[in-house]
Every structure is written in structure tokens, then in C-alpha cells.
Amino acid sequence: MSTLALAVRDTNTMLRRNLLHARRYPSLTLNLLLTPVMLLLLFVYIFGDVMSAGMSGGGADRADYIAYLVPGLLLMTIGSTVVGTAVSVSNDMTEGIIARFRSMAIHRGAVITGHVISSVLQSIVSVVLVGAVGVAIGFRSTDATALEWLAAFGLLAFFALALTWIAVGMGMVSPNAEAASNNALPLIFLPLISSTFVPIDAMPGWFQPIAEYQPFTPAIETLRGLLLGTEIGHNGWLAVAWCLVLTALGYRWSKAVYNRDAK
């Protein structure tokens, strides 16, 4: 069997293993998924009128705020979902199963790649579920073309891949599952200080650079532009650049830690 065929076979085996674990122990994924869903319902039904009135400077329009809020929460959903990946990787690294895999005739990168593909698939499913909740409470994207929808899906998948590699690295350097969960908290916290809930212009001047110069904000603004027809500007290139940088950084970090621990 060629090296490529061996890698594909073993990666597929590890992918099925991780998806089986997610199906047998869904509590972690569901708990992480509840965070963006609860925030969506909270900000729409409790704060929606006030937030929309403040943003428009006039009358309250909850429908406008739903349209503004959902793209940001879709990306926040990815950040929440990959926390479970960090915990899963940490469990594998600390419970001895990785040492067992290394003693078997398994392709070296299959274990990590299986975690990454599984996490991206779970992130996409989570995004679809949160998006369905958004549609159920009034989110509409009537002006987006098929090409824009395809671009939006590609951005979400690329962003999920980037954050997943970072989460894998966090899981590998964590001594236990609790530490992995804590180390991955910035992936949930950063969307809270981005343009998810309010425009950057509405934030205090000293805080605006913190919200602007981070990976979530350009990705959120790009997704809004694709789904709602708002101005994207330079945010599209910034979002792609952030995804490329985070993917490369997470990949090299994860690979270095995995190879170091094998010695």
C-alpha cells in the first residue's frame, strides 16, 4: 500500500473514532453549542429593541438587529465548538492512547488529522443548527446570491479549520482536560469583544483597536457583507489572511509538540 493510501485509510479510521466518541458523549458538544444559542435568544428577545434603537439612533427594529447579530454568532459557534476539540486532544495525549497508537502500524499524522477533520465537521453541523435557530426567530438573507452563499460557507469552513488547528495545539500542551478547556477559553471570549454585538464605532475609542485587530472581527464583517450585502472592504482579505496565519501556526505548533512528545 502506498504512503498516501495508508495515510487516507488511517485518517479515515481516526475520523470514525472521533465521530463515534462525539456521538457517544454528546454532552460536551451540546453544552458548548448552548452558549451561542442562549446568547442569540438573550440578545434578540431581552436586549434586541434597545440595541437596535441605539445602533440606528431611532426607533427599535428587532429584525435589523437579528440580521446584524446572527453572522457574528455563527463564527462564535465555531469558537465554542473547537473547545471540545482541545479537551478531546488533551484526553488522548494524557490517557495513554497516543502511546498505543505509536506502537501500531498507523500513519504518523493520521491521529491529528482525524481530530481536525472531525472538529471541522462538528463545527459545520453546529453552525447549521445555530443558523436554523436564527432563521426560526426571523433572520433572513434575501439579497445574497448563490455565489455569495458559497463564499460564506467557504469562509465558515476555513475559519473552522484555522481555529481547530489552534485548539489541537492547545490540547496537546495541556496537562489535563480541565486545563485544555481553560486554555481554549479565548476562542469563546474573543467574539465577545469583537463586532458581534455592536459596531466598533459604538465602542469607546481606547477599546476599538482591541476589537478591530483580532481574527473574529474581519471574518464577521466579511460574513455580514456576503449574507446581508453590507460593505466588506478590506475585511475579506484580512479574514483570509487570519485564517491562513492561524492554520499555519496551529499546524506547525501541533506537529512540533506531537513529534517532541514522541521522543
Mean pLDDT across all residues, rounded? 87
**In total, how many beta strands?**
0
Q: How much helicity do the residues have?
A: over 70%
Structural class: mainly alpha
Query: How would you name the oligomeric state of the polypeptide chains in this document?
Result: single chain
Largest sheet geometry: none
> Uncertain runs with pLDDT below 50, 5 residues or more?
none
Whole-number radius of gyration? 19 Å
| Beta-strand share of residues | under 5%
**SSE ordering:** HHHHHHHHHHHH
The number of helical runs is 12
Distance between the termini: 27 Å
Shape: elongated
Highlighted features:
single chain, mainly alpha
In a few lines, what is going on in this structure?
The radius of gyration is 19 Å and the shape is elongated. It has 263 residues and is mainly alpha-helical.
Architecture overview:
The chain has helices at 3-24, 27-45, 48-56, 62-94, 97-102, 110-136, 146-173, 177-183, 186-192, 208-212, 216-228, 235-261. The protein is mostly helical and 263 residues long. The radius of gyration is 19 Å and the shape is elongated.
